Hints:
The longest helix is centred in the middle third of the chain and has 38 residues, at about 330-365. This protein has three domains: about 1-45 and about 270-415, no CATH class; about 55-265, no CATH class; about 470-645, no CATH class. It is α+β, with helices and mostly antiparallel strands. β15 and β16 (about 275-280) form a beta hairpin. α8 (about 285-310) runs antiparallel to α13 (about 420-455) and α22 (about 710-745) packs antiparallel against α23. The radius of gyration is 33 Å and the shape is elongated. Strands 1, 2, 3, 4, 13, 14, 19, 20, 21, 22, 23, 24, 25 and 26 form a 14-stranded mixed beta sheet that branches.
Amino acid sequence: MFKHNLLIIYRNLKRFKSTFFINLLGLSTGMACALLIYLWVNDELSMDKFHQKDKQLYQVYMHHEENGQIRSAPPVPALLADVLKQEVPEVITAVEDTETNDFGDGFSLSIGEEKVKARGKFSGAEYFQLFSFPFLKGDGKTALSDKSNIVLTESIAKRIFGTTDVIGKTLEWQILKFKGQAQISAVLEDLPDNSTESFEFVLPFSVFIDDLMGKERNHWGNYIALTYVELAKGTDIDELNEKIAPTIKNKVEKTNVEPFFKKYSSKYLHGKFENGKEAGGRITYVRLFSIIAFFVLAIACINFMNLSTARASRRLKEIGVKKTMGASRKQLIFQHLGESITITLLSLGVAYLIVLLLLPQFNQITGKYLTINMGVNLFIATVCITLFTGIVAGSYPALYLSGFKPVSILKGKLTTSTGELWTRKGLVVFQFVISIILLVAVWVVYSQIEYVQNKNLGYERQHVIKFPIEGTVADRLEAFINRLKGVPGVINASATTHSIVKSGASTTGVTWEGKYTDSNILFEQARAYYGLIETLGIEMKEGRSFSEKYGAEEDKIIFNEAAIEVMGLEDPIGKKVTMWGNEKEIIGVVKDFHFSSLHEAVSPMLFHFDKSFMLNIFAKVQSNNVESSLAGIQALYKEFNPGFTLNYEFLDANYQAQYQAEQRVSLLSRYFAGIAIIISCLGLFGLAAFTAERRQKEIGIRKILGAGGLQIIQLLSADFTKMVVIAIVIAIPISFWTTKSWLQGFAYSIEPEWYYFAGAGLAALVIAWLTISFQTIKSIRINPADTLKDE
C-alpha cells in the first residue's frame, strides 16, 4: 500500500506540474526563511547562557528616582561589592568590573618598543570563578589574585609573542598616562561568539582603583563600576531585591537610589527599562522575527491548501473509485497527508540548498557567524518545521477531498460549496493582510532610521574624528592639542572622557543650595578640556565654556538644561555647587543635546574641567580637506607617539553604530516582506490560472458576443480585487497599532503618516493586479473557436 501511494503521488506530481512547481517554490522559500530565522533566533537566545553558574549569576543595577520617574542603569559605586559580600548572606561572591567599551582602543600592550592595541578591562580577583571562560593555560582561581597579574586571550598572546606558552612572561600595559608592568598569569581561549564580553586581556580591578581612579574618588557618589554576584541556589530574587533595596540608604544619608539584582544572561535580550520596570529590548526583535517566520511559512501553506482544493475537481474520479472499492476516509486522509509531506520533504531539500547559498550574505547582514551544524536542536527544529508545514498544508485538502460522497462524484453532480469558496477567499485575504502589515512595517522602520540618522542632535557629528589619548600624548596633552589645531584643515580640537554618542560615567555626588534633602540626582558627567563645547558645536544657552583665557578652570562647572531644570535653579550663572567635596562655580549652561541613544530622553549632564584624566581627543576637520587633514594628524601623532598606530573613528559612524540593530531589522524586514509578497503572489498566480482555465468557455462566448479585452480582465480580476481590498481594510488598523507600539521604544520618533498605510495597500493591490493580469491576458489571446470545441 505504501508503494502504491508513492506511485500515485509521483503520477499526480507529473500530471499537475505547474501546481507542483508553485507549491515547491513557495514551500521551499517559506521553509528557508523559517530556517534562517531559527538559526538567528537560536543564536540570540543562547547569548551568555554558556556560563556554568548561569542560574545563579546576576548583575547589580541601580534604580535612580528623579522627578517622580525611575531610571535604571548598571553602573554602581565600587564600594558596593564588598558590602554585599559582608552583609547579604545570599550573596556567595561579588566581583567588581569595568566596561570594556569604557576604554575602547585606548589600551596598548608592549614588549620593548613594539606597541599592540588591544581591548582590555579591569576585573575583581574572583571574576573567572563567576564566568566560565575556558583557560588554555593557568588557573582561573588565582589568575587575578595579585595586583601585578594580567590575563591574555589566545589571539592577543599570539599577536604579541607568537605563541600561547607565555605564562610568567612580563609585558607593559598603558592607558592614557598610566602604565605598568604585568606578569602573565593565564591565557584564555578566544571568547565564544555568543558572549557579550569582547575583551582581549584583563587586569586586576585594584589597579583601576589605586592607579587610575585614585582611592579618594572611590566613594558612594561615584558610579564607576559594574558588579556581578553569585547567589545561593533557591534564592527568591524578588524577596532579595526588596531586602537589598535600602543597602546604600543605610550607608549614605538622604539618597534616592536602590540597588537590585538582574539575571546576567537576560540583560542582552531584556536590557530596556521604563520607570523601573523591564520593558523589553532585543527580545522584541526575537519575537518579531519568530512571528514573521511563522507567517511566511503559513502563507506558503495557504498556497498549498488553496491550489489543492481548487484543483480538487481533477481528482474527484480517483477518490470516487477508491471509495467505491472500499477505501476508508482515514486511508484517503493519510494518502493526501503523505502527498503533502512528500512535497514538504522535497521542499526541505531545496530550502537547505537556499540556506547554504544565502547564509554568508545573511551573516553579513546580521553581523553573526551562523553555521548549519546538524546537532540535536537543529534536527528537532527541522523535523518540527517539516511536520508542521506538511500537516498544516495538507490537512484541509485531505479533509476536504476525503469527505466527498462517491455517488455524487461518479454521477458528476458535485458542486463547489459556499463554505469552500469562503474558506479559500479567507485564506487569500489572510495572506495579503500579513503582506500589507509587513510592507507598512518596512516603511515605518526605514523612516524611523532615516529620522534617527538625520535628526539634529544638538551637536555637530559630521567631519569630527575621535581617537584615544595614549603614550606621551597623555603627558603632553596641552602641547599636542595646540599643535593639532595648527594642522592644515583642522578647525578645532579638544579632549574629554566622554564618547558623546552614548552614556558613560555618572555621579550623584553633586549638592547645591536649595537641593531637596531627600533626593540624589544622577548626573551624566564628563571631564572636559578647553574648547570642547566649540569643537563639537554644542550651543550655549547662557554663560561661557571652558577657555584658556580664564586660566585654571578646575573650580568651574557647566550643566545642560535638563540638569538645571531638575536642580530647580534660576539664574544659575555664578552660583556655587559642591561636587565630590569640592566647591565649583557654574559658568555656563548648554542647550540639551543627545549624548546617548534616541531610545532615551535627554537626562541631566555636567562638564567639569579636569585635564589630568582624559580618554578621547576630538578634532573637527574641514569637509573638503579630510584626507590631507588625516594625513597631517597621523604625522603629528607619530611624532608624539613613536611605535603607536593612530586608530581614529568618525563621530558620525560612532553614532550610527548605536542603531545597528534597527538597521539590520530594517534590512531583514525588507527581504522578508518581499518574500511574503512573492509567495502570496505565487498562490494568486496559481488561483488566477485555475480560474481562467475553468472559465475559458465563458470567455470564448463573451468574446464572440463582442466583449473587449478590458471587460474580460475586469470580470476575472473582480473577485481577487475584492479580496485584496478586504485585506487592506483589515491590515491598516493592525499595522497602525503594531508600528505605533514599536515606535514607543524611542523617546524621539516619527509619527506614522497616512500615506504609509495607503501606499502599502496600493502596492499590494497593484502587485495583485499585475499577477492576475498575466493569466487573464493569456486567456484573452486564446482563439474562442479552440475553447468552444467539443471535448
